[in-house]
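Operator note (shift B, R.M.): manual run for TPR-like protein requested after the automated queue skipped it. Running by hand, logging everything below so the morning shift can see what happened. Input copied straight from the record, untouched. If output looks odd, do not overwrite the archive copy; leave it for review.
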Amino acid sequence: MSTQPEGLPLLSALCLLPSGAKIESLPEMIPSMERNVTATSLVLLRTGLAYQESGRIRILSPIRDFILAQYPPSERQLRDVGEFVMRLANRAHEYGDENSADMVQILTEEFANINAVLLHLWRTIPLVFTLDVCRMSSISLGHYAVATGYGDYGPLLRTSIATLRRWRGSGGSGSLTNSQDTDSVHRTRDEAKGIAQCLQMLGDILRKQSRLKEAAVIVTEARTAFEAIPDRLGAAHCAQSLAGILCRQYRYEEAAGLLTQARAAFEAIPDRFGATQCARDLGDVLRMQSRYDEAALLLTEARAAFDAMLHRLGAAQCLWGLGDILRMQCRFEEAAVRLTEARAAFDAISHRLGAAECLSGLGNILRSQSQYEEAAALLMEARAAFESIPYRFGAAQCAQDLGDVLCMLGRFEEAALVLTEAKAAFEAIPYRLGVAGCLSGLGNLLRSQLRYEEAVGLLMEARAAFEAIPDRFGAAQCARDLGGALRMQSRFEEAALVLTEAKAAFDAIPHRLGAAQCLWDLGTIFRTQSRYEEAVTLLTEARAVFDAIPGQSGAAMCIYALANILVDQSQYTEVSSMLQEAEEVFQHLGAKWELASCRQSLARLFVKQGQIPEARHMLYHAREIFEGMGLIPGWQSALQHWRSYTQTPRRRYFSVLSV
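Run finished. Output pasted below as returned.
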């Protein structure tokens, strides 16, 4: 080091960079040392003060802390490195544009360095750069952090706000800045605007972190500051941010009102991009209120506007919303196309959060189509993606959906663990809708384990939680599940009443699949009560709806139930072919419970026809599936399980198994 006078200055500069630097980029990064910087970096490597990893020269954390404290970079080195990282930060405005993939890769690689250098600059007194330059770069990188969910950007914004406030409090005395910033004494309006912009950005980041109460306080403060300046554009952006917070708090009407105000403000300015963002957000609010036709209209309008502006991120977000609407309308094939298209668009601009949302949506489509193994794989992948960002809200939602799928696969212990984890995560956020969903999932898990009393208690609690939010779809789904649990307790009148309410709720949303499932449940109750004519009418109506919704097991379930009614009435002619048709569908979809129940019914048919060896063979197959799902002994549990529709006395099965 003694032979290299630039060794310590370079070491000091590199200590600003927690992720190190590419050796070939050092001349551009520190132009004041351009001639000798490569040779000096090799000296640092030989002395062991630095090490090389993946083509980058790095300094160990303890050495960095010591050097920055004892031998901080000079103003010249700070200016060199600062200008370099600010050029990178200011590229964030390209995000979502046609050719932003390269920028995303660079900012992702250098995010920790940019964040660290900007933080150091804000803490350095006197400031090396003007307040405006620091603020603009900090806000630019903040937009990237909000859009991608990447990095912890809160400390930098809090530091910048504190420094800007100290500067205002000093009365422009110059104590916070060098002579280059003397003009800023007379720029009170810009100073107030800078603080407001940083406050709004901090609020947006807190919202992404699900810290909703803190976010609301800070964005409200920012909005008040913008209105006092006055700055219409900033105030409109704050109204839009507050609407996003209100949505997460289920205050949809208030959110829609704020977005309508913000949209009008953007149009009056005029700011076409802001107005389009508000149209997209209004579409999302309507989607969350199950007002699908209105939502689709707004999202289609917003997508066209984003396409015209060549803003790929906005267009991809609209595509995702349209795909989710189609999923909720049970138009699964169209939904899968939209979500696949949206995922490709997000991947093209390296938007990890959007791509993960699409994965989750595709997993839930497969779940609705009873393709549980494939659904579980996609949901696990999506959960891992959310956790890597990190985005705990998305990870918790995936865990909830995954728990429901694992329950359908009979992996009850795993399902209970995942749902409990998801519930704890939602409670910590807090997010009442997620908590209610997990309660519902745990209730259905207990129902699958034949623990009906406990299941009814949890499902009633979950239904009340959904109604309190209010969430119409969740409440309707919970009512349907509750009706199924009551049915298995032979509380038929209560079950029929709850299921009728659930069907009316699904019809009002509208949600065809949910309404058809309620018809199926009611038909099964009537069959249990030997009201065969009514049961056949309802099951036939349900089958017609299921037939119009491809890729799920509902139609096969109706065939299966209708076949069992024929067995009850000793009409065996068509039963075998009907059950075999249903069995093929269940086997193709990997629907284990349905498959085992179908084989159980085939065994019952064989018993009725005196074909005992065939009955025993089929019942053993059903037993293997049930036991593989954790119901031991499976063949006994199956007789009382909520998806077992056979009413033959158990002693008949005992005799079959003893042959």
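Quick read of the result: DSSP finds 32 helices and three strands in the chain. The beta strands are 21-22, 51-53, 56-58.
Leaving this for review. - R.M.
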